[in-house]
Amino acid sequence: MFKTSIALLLAAVAVVGCENTQSRLDSVATQAPKGTQAAAAPVNTQADHSGDVETRLRRLEDNYAKHAEALEFLGKVYAQQKQQQAQQEQSEPDPTAVFAVAVDNDVKAGKVDGPNTAIVTVVKAFDFACPYCERAASTMDDLVKEYDGKVRIVYKDMVVHPQVATDAHLATCAAAKQGKYLAYNHAVWEKGFKPYAASRDPSKLGKENLMALAKELGLDTTKLQADMGGECQKVIQDDMAELAKFKVNSTPTFFVNGIHVGGALPKEAFKKIIDERLAVAEQSGVSGADYYEKEVMGKGVKQFRSKAEAGGGGGGDPHAGHGH
User: Fold this and answer.
1) What is the CATH number of the domain that holds 278?
2) Helix (H, G, I), strand (E, B) or coil at 261
3) 192: closest CA among 227, 166, 218, 158?
C-alpha cells in the first residue's frame, strides 16, 4: 500500500515540477493524495486553463499546499521506516559473522552426533517443549547420515519453557553420562514431547515418565536422578550462559561452523548452508578434526555482533525461519 501511495504521490509532484511551453501555470496537477488514502486518489495530469491569472495562481498555490502536505507525510513515513529498520538491525545477528560458540564441554559430555573429525559442526540450541525443535530433530539425524562423517551436531540446552522442559534437559544430560544421550534424546521426543504436545499435559515431560523411559533403555535410574540433581545443573547453566553471549533467546537456533541460522528450516535449506560452509572449510586446508577449534574458535567473533554493527545491508538474514 505504501509503495503504491509513494509512486502516485511522486507522479503528482513530478507534474508540478514540469513546465508547459504554452504556460508556466498549465502543468499543475489538480489533485494530490492525502495521508493513507493515497493509493485510492487518482492523479489528474490535465492542466486547468480556466479563470484569469489570479484565479490560476491561487489554484497553483492550493495544489502546492496539498503536495507539500503529502510530501511531509511521506517524510514522516520514511523516517519511521528508517527507525524501525535501525532497531531491527540492532537486534539481528550479523549474517556474515562466524560466531565462536564453544562446544568442547558438550562434546566431552557426549551431547553430540557425528564424529569429532567432521569438518562441519552444527550447534543446535533447543528446548524439549518447543515444537519447532522437534520438527528439526529428524532433520539433524538425516544430515549426519547423508554427509557421512563430514557433519556433526552438537546439542546445547536452551531452556525457554523451564516449568515444562527442565527435567527433560537434566535427564538427557544425565543419560549422556551413561553413554545413551542420543537414544534418550530420541525417546524424549517420541514418548515425552509428542504426548505432551497432543495433550498439553506437562507430566508427559515430568520425572515419572522420564524415569520410565530411562528404564526402557536400561539406564541406571538411581545414578540418573543423582546426576540430574548434581553436575547436570551446571551443564545446562553453562550452555545457556554461552548462548547468552550471542543473544540466543529463542529455539531452535543453529550455528553452522559459526554462521547463525534461526529457525527450523527444511532439510534442503540446511543442506545449502552446509554445502557453502563445507566448501569454505575444505578449501582452507585444515583437517576436519582441527577445523572448528582453529578456524571457528580461533578466528571467530567471541560475542554477539549485530547486523547494524557490521554495516547493515544485505536485506536481512537469508536463513531466518520459524522459531519458538
Assistant:
1) 3.40.30.10
2) strand
3) 166
Q: How many other CB atoms are there within 10 angstroms of residue 112's CB atom?
A: 21
- Residues 113 and 83 both lie in one domain: no
> Are 85 and 122 within one domain?
no
Q: pTM for the complete prediction?
A: 0.73
Gyration radius from the chain CA atoms: 29
Euclidean distance between CA atoms 122 and 146, whole angstroms: 14
| Of 30 and 192, the one with more pLDDT | 192
Cell numbers for 69, please give them: 502536505
Is 315 domain-assigned?
no
Domain range for 48 is 2-91
Over residues 155-172, mean pLDDT = 98
Q: What is the 3-state secondary structure (H, E, C) of 270-316?
A: HHHHHHHHHHHHHHHCCCHHHHHHHHHHCCCECCCCECCCCCCCCCC
Residue 16 pLDDT > 70: no
**Residue 297's pLDDT band (boundaries 50, 70, 90)?**
very high
User: Distances in Å between the alpha carbon of 92 and those of 107, 123, 200, 321?
Assistant: 28, 18, 32, 13
Type of residue at 110? G
Identify whether residues 150 and 239 lie together within a single domain: yes
DSSP 64: H
Angstrom distances, CA of residue 148 to CA of 94, 109, 115, 142: 30, 22, 9, 10
How much is the average pLDDT of 243-271?
97
67 and 190: one domain?
no
Let me know how long the chain is.
324
Query: Quick check: is 321 in a domain?
Result: no
Residue 151 covered by a domain: yes
Q: Is 75 within the bounds of a domain?
A: yes
**Judgement on whether residues 65 and 126 belong to the same structural domain of the protein:** no
Q: Exposure of 172 by Cβ count < 10 A (0-12 exposed, 13-18 middle, 19+ buried)?
A: buried
Collapsing DSSP to helix, strand or coil, 122 comes out as: strand
How far is 181 from 82, CA to CA, in rounded Å?
A: 47
Do 86 and 143 fall into the same domain? no
Domain boundary among 46, 62, 91: 91
